[in-house]
Write a structure and sequence with these properties.
This protein is α+β, with helices and mostly antiparallel strands. It contains five helices and five strands, in the order ββαβββαααα. About 35% of the residues lie in helices and about 10% in strands. It has a five-stranded mixed β-sheet, with helices on one face. It is globular and about 45 Å long. The model has no long low-confidence stretch (mean pLDDT about 95).
Amino acid sequence: MVKVNGVYYEDEVEPRKLLVDFLRENLNLTGTKIGCDTSTCGACTVLLNGKSVKSCTILAVQADGKEITTIEGLSSYSKLSPVQQAFKDNFALQCGFCTAGMVVQAHYILSEKREMTEEEVRDMIHGNICRCTGYQNIVNAILDASRRMRA
């Protein structure tokens, strides 16, 4: 049994099935992207028991008894989270492929430390690749979200 975005699920899975595949195929949570299958790009980033992980490096069976938050679980139906709103307001979306992983990573970063410098933000997102080279807008969005969350 696993808790995903506040909902409990129980399912039998192949021992070799990756968490990213379980989320996408079994639960139809397609916001988590498959980018590289080598943990290089960060598009598949989710929160596992509150910690940022790349779901292409974890087997679904390893998540048994744990709590997972995906991009779909970060907002309510009627309101974006402060991080999501900051990404929108700062044009940090570009093609959108890296966006889910970046937003989840930003949530994790800001849960650990609310006030950060641009250099610290860049260091904390180094494991998430933006293929559109939109890093400046992403950094601006995270810094903006940090200000919003402190206010």
